[in-house]
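Q: What does the assembled structure look like for these inputs?
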Amino acid sequence: MKRRKIFAGNWKMFKTYSEAVELVNGLNAGLKKTEGREYVVFPPSPYLREISSLCASSPFETGAQNMYFENQGAFTGEISPVMVKDCGASLILIGHSERRHVFHETDEEVNKKVKAAITHGIQPMLCVGELLEEREKGETVSVLNRQIRGAYAGVEKSDAAKISIAYEPVWAIGTGKVATPEMAEEAHMSIRAIMKELYGDDIAAAVPILYGGSVKPDNIAGLVKMENIDGVLVGGASLEVKSFLDIINV
Ligand code: 13P
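A:
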């Protein structure tokens, strides 16, 4: 089955405005588009509108790194799904490990954000992944089960098809310790098995599952040739034009 392939860069809380513009201009100039691949950048929210307009006539789509689930209200410091859309973004990262572990976001909040994104026509990219201690205790699959079942609770099958998943083992994020292609493949197969239990064969076969965690130009080739790895979500190496182009042009 032919699945969507998504190559994405999460800029996290990096870059000044002028650096962000320089980065996106460099990416737009150097991208060698491969048929069937989708490209996304997740800039910091103050630059989302400008970066979205710079990408409007390019193959890059944009997404926000986080949002609150209410449409509006007295929620100082938050941004809403309405604002994300208004800035021209078409995707939203939900449940990134830094949201879960630094800001203590729960599976229940992740679920509310997934539903809010769907209501507003924003594609959720759901991030899941285990801590090192959870992997060492053999709990990887149960963590994935809990995170995925929590995120999709009450989500209809027709809406489940709109969500992509990024498997980002927490121990591999920003550490230089990439999961081997075989480890990532095994986790992606577990995710597909959970999706099969929840929504059946067709959704399980169609859901794009990206790998994230220390993806670099020198390890991308091994990752993308795995059957169940449908793209990558890149942090550090997406912050420089050359290294991100070396990854997405692979
Ligand atoms: P690194 O590529 O810097 O490990 O970050 C991965 C990540 O968290 C992407 O969302």
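Residues 10, 96, 168, 173-174, 212-215, 233-237 surround 1,3-dihydroxyacetonephosphate (CB under 6 Å).
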